[in-house]
From TrEMBL:
GO terms under biological process: endoplasmic reticulum to Golgi vesicle-mediated transport; endosomal transport
Species name: Capitella teleta (Polychaete worm)
GO terms for cellular component: endoplasmic reticulum membrane; Golgi apparatus; late endosome membrane; plasma membrane
Cross-referenced InterPro entries: EGF_Rcpt_Signaling_Reg, FkbM_mtfrase
Protein name (database record): Methyltransferase FkbM domain-containing protein
Classification lineage: Eukaryota, Metazoa, Spiralia, Lophotrochozoa, Annelida
Pfam families reported in the protein's UniProt record: Methyltransf_21
Span of domain Methyltransferase FkbM: 22-84
Amino acid sequence: MIGASIYKIHICPSIDMEESEQQRLRSERVECFPLPSILSAVDIQHVDYFSLDVAGMELDVIKTFPFGAVTSDVITVTFQPHYMSKANSKQYLAEIKLFMEGVGLHDCLGELKAQTGGGRQEGMVVTFVRKGLFKE
């Protein structure tokens, strides 16, 4: 059985839109399903590449990934450290790595810091690769 939740999402309206359209798009209620339910419903047992970027909820979501039922080759987790203090972003990164290490199926391939032209860090991407994927 697939469980669903209703969440309110906020949408950034385009400057080119009429004001009435901008007002309508400011927020919308959408039905959301847990990732394990979606994968199970469509009988997916392997994911080549899983990219996770959910605006601050990455650790909560990755903890729901059905590692026992679904294999994955590459997982990238993206988060925006500029929303948190430097110490908190380092702690958050450490928690993600610790969780994935505890799962024991993937190695951390590395981290990539994305920056804007002004040098401000906009995002952090951490890549995990299934153990044994790249055999010598």
